[in-house]
Amino acid sequence: MTKRILFGAAFIIIIAAGAVATWMNFSSENITPTMVPVDKTAVSAKNHKNIAYDIDGTSVTLVNGVSEMVAAEGPASKTVTRYFGNEAMGDLNKDGTNDIAFLLTQESGGSGTFFYAVVALKTSTGYKGTNAILLGDRIAPQTTEIRNGYLIVNYADRAENEPMTARPSMGKSKYLVVENGALAETPVFIESPEKGAAISSPLTVSGVAKGPWYFEASFPLLLLDENGKTIAQSHATAQGEWMTTEYVRFSAALEFTAPAAGSRGTLIFKKDNPSGLPEHDDSREVPVVFK
């Protein structure tokens, strides 16, 4: 009788142990995953230092301003991308909200440190990164600004034939725009007049344009009234050597009889195209108001 009681008690203990084990397995499979702590370095589109940017065709996602990508060759080929700074805020895609432009650096294990300009476009859900525009290797960044819808990046670089050991001392600028969500270099930047400016005669025009915009050191300008009628025309004249692919400063003066005060007009900058081929045409328009 005693043996039967002992055997029954042991059997009950075994059954209970099995039930506990089954419950523990069930718990580990169904409860534990919900208790995994949240990764605090997770990417958030609400921060421009935690989104992806396209650099030379590769999507690079920053996490707290840094990205480390290891190539197939191994850790020695690691590419490190870092937030550098020089931030500027302004509306670059004409949607009425301020975007953030800044510089990135990228190193790939060699002696080079490549600088890029990027823009974080503000959206209703956070930020979206653009492609990157290369500025140069081991340059000396100066200022970054957003003016009249353009991103202007100023920096110092070396002269064309100077060695990389030379200190950057030549001032350069890149004039960038956002078109269809992509960052691109613009061939012409009009400093004056700005869009929507009130103008009167004589009108002084100034800015910079890439060398290929000029022919014999100039390119055409037209001033139209609100009906599209030409009321003045002239040429913007290069203020330096125009046979280059770099930016060259220009200036011009227009004299005209102004239409009714408050009426609108358009100032048109046209790339000089001696070939006459339409694929070589290009132009920019600046809306103005007559005083």
Q: Tell me the count of domains.
A: 2
Strand sequence of the main sheet, in spatial order?
A: 13-15-18-17-16-19-20-14
Q: In one word, what is the shape?
A: globular
Mean of residue pLDDT?
Answer: 87
**Residues in helices, as a percent range:** under 10%
Helix tally equals 1
Largest sheet: 8 strands, mixed
Could you list the spans in which at least 5 consecutive residues all have pLDDT below 50?
1-43
Report the span from N to C terminus: 117 Å
- Structural class estimated from helices and strands: mainly beta
Extended strand count = 20
Strand-residue proportion: over 45%
What is the N-to-C succession of helices and strands?
A: HEEEEEEEEEEEEEEEEEEEE
Radius of gyration, rounded? 31 Å
Tags for this model:
mainly beta, Immunoglobulin-like, 2 domains, 8-stranded mixed sheet, 1 helix, globular
Sum this structure up briefly.
The protein is mainly beta. The chain contains 1 helix and 20 strands. Helices cover 10% and strands 50% of the residues.
Structure explained in plain terms:
There is one protein chain. With 291 residues, the chain is mostly beta strands. It has two domains: 135 residues, no CATH class; 102 residues, Immunoglobulin-like (Sandwich). It is 10% helix and 50% strand. It is built from one helix and 20 strands. An eight-stranded mixed beta sheet has the order 13-15-18-17-16-19-20-14, with no helix packed on it. Strands 3, 4, 5, 6, 7 and 8 form a six-stranded antiparallel beta sheet that branches. A hairpin with an 8-residue loop joins strand 17 and strand 18. It is globular and about 70 Å long. The N terminus is likely disordered.
